[in-house]
Specification:
Layout (H helix, E strand, L loop, with lengths): L5 H12 L7 E8 L1 E3 L9 H11 L7 E4 L5 E4 L3 E2 L1 H20 L3 E4 L16 H12 L3 H9 L3 E5 L5 H22 L4 E2 L2 E2 L5 H7 L3 H4 L11 H11 L4 E5 L3 E6 L5 H8 L6 H9 L6 E3 L12 E3 L15 E3 L11 E2 L17 E4 L4 E4 L40
Parallel strand pairs: 6-15
Antiparallel strand pairs: 1-4, 1-5, 1-7, 2-6, 3-4, 7-13, 8-9, 10-11, 12-14, 16-17
């Protein structure tokens, strides 16, 4: 079995995550919270959902159905030429799923964050157990909420025709990130009350381990995206180490090392390619390149626009992708409000504008997407791009509605 060096990490990322080719296909993944219309505050079990979805047969347009840790449903489309055909295919499959759920009194919720139910992890796979333990040990309850109570849309796009095209797309998608946050923000209520933010979901993501959620492209990073992504991955803390490469045996959650330190020999065993692939899957920056190990089949390379990593990319899609976690669901024909009596009307105490960052010893502006102005049009202030781990947002725990309280 071959063990990896730092040079191997750079070589893998350059050769796999940034492989280029003629653009053409588009894929998409949609994640949905599910509510019981007769009991909106009760959780809907994966067992119940699985039985319903198996009984109704496979989606007619070929989407793959999987589940998120909290029981959210995810539909991953087939990759098709152009966005119009992908939209049409997902629309068809969503109608199919929505009909099956409706017959049992269930519905897809039209929000990116569960506004009333606490996060409850249903999937008990070792991967998710280790993730939850990692966030708990680092006192980041927002991580559990991120795993179990959020949902979004993910769009898969081609990487580019060549390296220059890939660099241009990489830069452009980073610049578009705040625009997408503001345009699609749809999570104003959490734990039964308004938070003061248009996208509380994004605030929760921004509050979770900035070493794996901050943007890869920020001031000071070089122009080469492959080098930037390799350095980002090497600097990130390792979330978990399975006993055997590929996920077998027992797991060590939060071994207390970065990937660079593990490669240097400070881990419980040497690093393999399977370990690197798993580590990359636990990084959730706004734009993430994804290698062919995370797709099901298909020959062409790609980019992915998404909120979070929770399984594979659109099947039949391109081998390589970028993930961009910005897009929330607006009201759609497929969803219903999750608050049983409509959104609460009592406003929360406004979040503090700045807090002391323990790691940096300096004051940093909080980066949650806040509603701007009172009584004016719905606008959103996106989470900042280019924040480093030392200047990551820290919400005071006594602030009502804050992601970490």
């Amino acid at each position: 079995m071959a063990y990896m060096t730092t040079e191997d990490v750079h070589e893998y990322i350059n050769g796999v995550c940034f492989k280029t080719g003629p653009p053409g296909k588009v894929g998409a993944e949609t994640e949905w919270l599910v509510t019981d219309l007769a009991s909106p505050t009760a959780p809907v079990t994966i067992e119940r959902l699985s039985a319903l979805l198996e009984a109704c047969g496979p989606p007619p347009a070929g989407s793959r159905i999987t589940f998120e840790p909290g029981g959210q449903i995810e539909l991953s489309s087939v990759a098709l030429p152009g966005p119009a055909r992908t939209h049409e295919a997902l629309e068809t499959d969503l109608r199919h799923v929505g009909k099956a759920l409706a017959e049992d009194g269930l519905a897809l919720a039209e929000t990116a964050l569960d506004p009333v139910r606490p996060p409850v992890r249903q999937l008990r796979l070792p991967r998710y157990t280790a993730m939850e333990r990692f966030f708990t040990e680092h006192r980041q309850p927002s991580g559990r909420t991120m795993m179990c109570s959020t949902a979004s849309l993910q769009v898969c796009l081609d990487t580019g025709a060549d390296l220059d095209d890939a660099r241009e797309r990489w830069s452009l998608l980073h610049r578009l990130g705040p625009v997408l946050v503001a345009s699609f923000a749809n999570s104003t209520v959490w734990r039964g009350r308004p938070t003061g933010w248009k996208s509380t979901r994004w605030a929760i993501w921004a509050a979770t381990d900035s070493g794996r959620t901050r943007p890869v492209l920020e001031p000071g990073t070089g122009p080469d995206p492959a080098t930037a992504w390799a350095e980002y991955a090497l600097a990130a803390r390792v979330m978990a180490v399975p006993e055997f490469p590929g996920g077998g045996g027992s797991w060590i959650a939060d071994p207390g090392i970065t990937l660079a330190e593990w490669v240097e020999g400070r881990g419980p065993r040497p690093v393999t390619t399977a370990d690197l692939e798993f580590h990359l899957s636990t990084l959730f920056p706004p734009l993430r390149p994804r290698g062919c190990g995370e797709t099901t089949h298909g020959p062409a390379p790609s980019l992915v626009v998404d909120r979070a990593e929770r399984g594979g990319t659109s099947h039949g899609a391109n081998e390589n992708c970028f993930r961009l976690p910005f897009v929330e669901f607006p009201n759609t024909p497929h969803g219903v409000p999750l608050c049983p009596n409509g959104p609460p009307t009592t406003p929360p105490r406004p979040p503090r504008s700045a807090t002391r960052s323990p790691s940096a010893g300096t004051t940093a502006e909080t980066s949650c997407p806040r509603q701007i102005g009172a009584g004016g049009p719905a606008r959103a202030e996106p989470a900042p791009y280019g924040s480093s781990p030392s200047s990551s947002p820290r919400w005071p725990s006594d602030t009502p509605g804050c992601p970490t309280s």
